[in-house]
TrEMBL record:
The lineage of its organism: Bacteria, Bacillati, Actinomycetota, Actinomycetes, Micrococcales. One of its GO terms (cellular component) is plasma membrane. GO terms for biological process: cell wall organization. This is Penicillin-binding protein 2. The keyword Signal applies. Residues 155-479 form the Penicillin-binding protein transpeptidase domain. It comes from Cryobacterium frigoriphilum. Residues 52-134 form the Penicillin binding protein A dimerisation domain. Transmembrane segments: none annotated. Coiled coil: none annotated.
């Protein structure tokens, strides 16, 4: 009898230990991921029972919770909502949050693992629960300048700090007012959300980090990096200066913009080809380099990698699996299946500006407890080195020449050396072009890297081009931040 009791006691004890272990794991280690799960509606409703932490720009709230006179204790409000919507996102009463509201939901509601003891303290002391505030890296001058410069265009502007990876501006247009999606009226929220979903301009898409477009000629910076780093090419390397180039194994003709040769002479240098943004010599270069070298360099810049800033960034794409020479010739000037986000192209310019090192992009400066003590603070992190400092210096000089006397001339700023590259990418035989600019300034000691995306041809179909529409936007933004 005693033996059987002992066995039962052991089984009960093991079951108790298993139960205690599982609940401890859930509460201590899985609480944050469970709270962040968009299917967890209890967390959503609980988030309205505490004062959600503010999202701050330069110390001023751009998202905050205010007392509400209804079943919900607080109403989430957004100052200058459309300007910052691509960063803040929104938190509705009948759906999943987006943007920073989703990515940092645990911190903003005070339920993250790092705030566990603060939550216990509130329970013991009877203090009113309150979430952490989030100071973000956005510079209000840069954000406003990017918003104003982009105007009514469909597209995006991203500004970064090359040495750290801080995102200083992140604008996406068309935008929306998140205040319309956070009112405590299910019918009103549903109506506003459905209108945005059905809007032909797709305002809910964050074009800065989640919209992929062919990069066109701005991708020539990646290919030039691969060429210079190979040791087989210099800026003075020459290529046959052809009016048209037949890709190997095809009858398809590749032409420069306008259908002319790349300047005069029987040959053209790599430096001239980049300065004038000529497709034919880059197609020739791509075939000589080979697909593997371009893919390796693109991946070093961040292509084919996913980033969290902490919002999820759609991975930019350079096709893997091995391309033949015909397709490689097209990727060498940013076509075929190459796709990029504006953030990715800012990372390309930022790496050149940062002497060859790609930094991890980030939009969070610091997370602050309700008593304003720091829970966590931004620390720059390297993604990796993509090129030598010498190659970066050479590329910088080539990009400066592109702005001073080349295809990116509309980015010039009096008294400042701007390094830049434009792009005009095809989307099919009849679709409007995608227009780009990416670069940095001042070229000698860069403070700002920038990328500009203009979709739908800027309203000009296939007659618009990067230097006409994207470069002036970059010029206006860079001038504003350099003069602040």
């Amino acid at each position: 009898m005693n033996r059987e009791l002992k066995r039962v006691s052991i089984v009960v004890m093991l079951m108790f230990i298993a139960l205690l272990s599982s609940t401890s794991i859930v509460q201590a280690f899985e609480a944050e991921s469970l709270n962040a799960d968009p299917r967890n509606t209890r967390t959503l409703y609980d988030s309205y029972s505490v004062e959600r932490g503010a999202i701050l720009v330069d110390g001023d709230p751009i998202a905050q919770s205010v007392p509400a006179d209804d079943n919900f204790k607080y109403l989430r409000t957004y100052a200058n909502g459309p300007l910052y919507a691509s960063v803040t996102g929104f938190i509705p009463i009948n759906g999943a949050p987006t943007g920073l509201e989703f990515a940092l939901n645990s911190e903003l509601t005070g339920t993250s693992n790092s705030q566990f003891f603060d939550k216990i303290s509130d329970i013991v002391t009877g203090a009113t629960p309150k979430g952490a505030a989030v100071e973000i890296t956005i510079d209000p001058v840069a954000q406003q300048a990017a918003w104003d410069a982009l105007g009514d265009q469909t597209g995006s502007v991203v500004v970064t700090e090359p040495a750290t990876g801080r995102i200083l501006a992140m604008v996406s247009k068309p935008s929306y007012d998140p205040n319309r999606l956070t009112v405590h009226d299910n019918a009103a929220v549903t109506e506003a959300y459905d209108a945005l979903v059905n809007d032909a301009g797709d305002p809910l898409i964050d074009r800065a980090i989640n919209s992929l477009n062919p990069p066109g000629s701005v991708f020539k910076l990646v290919v030039t990096t691969a060429a210079l780093e190979s040791g087989d090419f210099t800026p003075d390397s020459t290529f046959p200066n052809l009016q048209t180039y037949i890709a190997p194994g095809t009858t398809s003709e590749i032409e420069n913009s306008g259908g002319n040769t790349c300047g005069g002479g029987d040959t053209v240098t790599l430096a001239t080809a980049l300065r004038l943004s000529c497709n034919v010599p880059f197609a020739e270069l791509g075939v000589q380099l080979g697909d593997a070298a371009i893919l390796e360099t693109a991946k070093k810049f961040g292509f084919n990698s996913e980033f969290q800033i902490p919002m999820d960034v759609t991975a930019s794409i350079y096709p893997e699996g091995g391309l033949d020479d015909a397709f490689t010739a097209q990727t060498a000037f940013g076509q075929y299946e190459v796709q990029a986000t504006p953030l990715q192209m800012a990372m390309v310019s930022g790496a050149i500006a940062n002497k060859g090192v790609v930094m991890q992009p980030n939009v969070v400066e610091e997370i602050l407890a309700p008593n304003l003590s720091s829970i966590s603070a931004f620390e720059p992190q390297e993604f990796g080195r993509v090129m030598s400092a010498e190659t970066a210096a050479t590329l910088t000089e080539m990009m400066v020449n592109g702005v001073q006397t080349g295809a990116a001339s509309n980015a010039r700023i009096d008294g400042v050396n701007v390094a830049g590259k434009t792009g005009t990418a095809q989307n099919g035989s009849t679709d409007p072009y995608t227009l780009w600019f990416t670069g940095f300034a001042p070229a000698e000691d860069p403070d700002y890297a920038i990328s500009v995306l203009v979709e739908d041809g800027g309203g000009m179909g296939q007659t618009g081009f990067g230097n006409l529409l994207a470069a002036p936007i970059a010029q206006q933004v860079l001038e504003a931040v350099l003069n602040k």
